[in-house]
């Protein structure tokens, strides 16, 4: 797995569909055996195209979220009574912020990744929600929460936000909130 570093930290206007398709294509390219073996459905819900303020690196963060989902869905599918594996991506416009602010500034892009993997117990979810690096599992069972930690740091740096939700043995959900690209706001930042 090679991360394309040329221009990866250049912030600006990026297409939501381009980022999502880039991340899902990367997942299909690198994890096709797992997707095929477990017949995991990767479902990108239709959405209205938009552009967000981020860098190319966001695509790799999104890939990491999807790859984590695939890992845990496949782990659950190893159980006999597991339902078919689903990873769903949903994008929508949401209102957030001060009611006295200009409406355009309150509108954000929400990207939600949901999977029907084993989820995590409430105590682990609380630790994952913390801003610090965490190590929740034994090394042989999976990751240590560093991907979510670096994503949280990345989003905080551009005014974004992440929320995690889970019900143990039912689902895991990652919700990302990012600014839509606004030339009068972000155009000035690109000049610096």
Question: How is this structure best summarized?
Answer:
The protein is α+β, with helices and mostly antiparallel strands and 192 residues long.
Topology (elements, then pairings):
Elements: E1 12-15, H1 16-38, E2 41-44, E3 51-54, H2 57-77, E4 86-95, H3 103-106, E5 107-115, H4 122-129, H5 146-157, E6 161-167, E7 171-179, H6 183-191
Parallel strand pairs: 2-4
Antiparallel strand pairs: 1-3, 4-5, 5-7, 6-7
Helix pairs in contact: 1-2, 2-5
Return Rg in Å: 17 Å
- What's the tally of helices? 6
Query: Which stretches are low in confidence, meaning pLDDT under 50 for 5 or more residues running?
Result: none
Q: How many strands?
A: 7
Based on the model shown, name its key terms.
single chain, 192 residues, alpha+beta, 5-stranded mixed β-sheet, two-stranded antiparallel sheet, 6 helices, 40% helix, globular
Account of the 3D structure:
It is a single chain. By secondary structure, the chain is of the alpha+beta class. 40% of the residues lie in helices and 24% in strands. The strands form 2 sheets. A 5-stranded mixed beta sheet has the order 2-4-5-7-6. A two-stranded antiparallel sheet has the order 1-3. α1 packs parallel to α2 and α2 (57-77) runs antiparallel to α5. The longest helix is centred in the first third of the chain and has 23 residues, at 16-38.
